[in-house]
Specification:
- Helices cover 35% and strands 27% of the residues.
- With 234 residues, the chain is of the alpha/beta class.
- It has one domain: Rossmann fold (3-Layer(aba) Sandwich).
- A hairpin with a 6-residue loop joins strand 2 and strand 3.
- The longest helix has 20 residues.
- Bound molecules: hypoxanthine.
- The site of hypoxanthine has 11 residues, from strand 5, strand 8 and strand 9.
- Hypoxanthine binds next to strand 5, strand 8 and strand 9.
Length: 234
């Protein structure tokens, strides 16, 4: 048992998918896994374990933002036997070449968060994906005829930034998209010696102002799920 995850040690698989939305965790468990069992419901942050193509996989909601994902990922790495964590989420495009519904594989994550400032005392750590997972995810997507965009993203603390044009500085340095969790996931994976990857669907564009409908997000999401699950069991 952890503070925020009410599961016994063996309840959680070595490979886990991490959506921000706990109801997305429920949806994945019920639609993609066989024999799903809910192992936690503390604060409604649902977690399930089931079987995908013969292998055990878990799926756990993390909430939004670095402080929230930090709590869940710390507990998953410290208190359970999680070796491989794959975030599945959405991101806002900040480069014009990124289009709605594009699949982004985050190679590295810059951040404006205070978390790593606090952790590293002003030094700059470079949160990086596990190459093995990145390669598997890329190959899996490419084999289906998709063209994932691989590169750097930024994890921000401020969905509603004081300066709404804040993202332009990151774009100037080739950062593709903005979300709110990956820098912490990659940092914790490095700390605990585990594998982590973030797969992101572009849900909106800060460049063009376009957004996806719920239906469009669902279709793009199903493709991303296939890539995530194949990578989880690889
Ligand atoms: N900003 C931050 N996080 C996000 C966004 C965004 O525009 N879109 C999806 N996640």
């Amino acid at each position: 048992m952890s503070t925020h995850i009410a599961a016994k040690s063996g309840d959680i698989a070595e490979a886990i998918l991490l959506p921000g939305d706990p109801l997305r965790a429920k949806f994945i468990a019920e639609n993609f896994l066989e024999e799903p069992v809910q192992y936690t419901g503390v604060r409604n942050m649902l977690g399930y374990t089931g079987i995908y193509r013969g292998k055990r996989v878990s799926v756990q909601g993390t909430g939004m933002g670095i402080p929230s994902i930090s709590i869940y990922v710390n507990e998953l790495f410290r208190d359970y036997h999680v070796r491989r964590a794959i975030r599945i989420g959405t991101a806002g495009a900040i480069l014009p070449e990124l289009k709605l519904r594009d699949l982004v594989i985050a190679m590295s994550a810059s951040t404006d968060s205070g978390a790593n400032n606090q952790r590293f005392g002003g030094r700059n750590f470079a949160p990086t994906a596990a190459f093995s997972l990145l390669k598997t995810a890329y190959d899996t997507a490419a084999a289906r005829g998709w063209q994932p965009k691989v590169g750097s993203i930024v994890s921000t603390d401020m969905f509603y930034a004081e300066d709404p044009g804040d993202w332009k500085l990151w774009a100037k340095f080739g950062v593709m998209a903005v979300e709110m969790e990956t820098a912490e996931l990659y940092t914790l994976a490095a700390k605990y010696g585990r594998e982590a990857l973030s797969l992101l669907t572009i849900s909106d564009s800060l460049v063009s102002g376009e957004t996806t409908s719920a239906e469009e997000r669902q279709t793009a999401f199903t493709g991303m799920m296939e890539v995530a699950l194949e990578t989880a069991i690889s």
